[in-house]
Design goal:
Largest sheet: none
Oligomer: single chain
Structural class: mainly alpha
Order of helices and strands: HHHH
Mean pLDDT: 82
Shape: elongated
CATH topology: Four Helix Bundle (Hemerythrin (Met), subunit A)
Distance between the termini: 42 Å
Number of helices: 4
Radius of gyration: 14 Å
Strand content: under 5%
Low-confidence stretches: 93-106
């Protein structure tokens, strides 16, 4: 199946923009919570760009209308066998969800 590079590039550009803004914001203000939220958004969009590359329409897929990285990671694993986020760092999806909830929903 042909890769959907155009859609993937759109999502990846958004990811890079969020990361750039997080870096600039951190440099200027050192506000941890806002920097973490922007970094989470960058990671989310980067992962969603991988799914778009596999012709998964993220915007129209109900299971992907989420900001929970653990859910998005599970979807990525279906298409990328080597996709084992957190294996080296010792993080698992439960820890990741607790972290996200603590930062985003405070």
């Amino acid at each position: 199946m042909r890769k959907n590079k155009a859609a993937a590039e759109i999502w990846f550009k958004k990811a890079k923009d969020h990361l750039a803004f997080a870096r600039a914001g951190w440099k200027e203000s050192k506000i941890v919570s806002d920097t973490c939220v922007l970094c989470q958004q960058a990671v989310e969009k980067a992962f969603k760009s991988l799914l778009e590359l596999e012709n998964i329409n993220v915007g129209k897929t109900l299971a992907l209308k989420t900001h929970r990285l653990a859910d998005i990671i599970e979807e990525c694993k279906k298409y990328y066998q080597g996709f084992n986020y957190g294996k080296k760092s010792g993080l698992n999806s439960g820890i990741l969800l607790d972290f996200e909830a603590g930062i985003i929903y405070r």
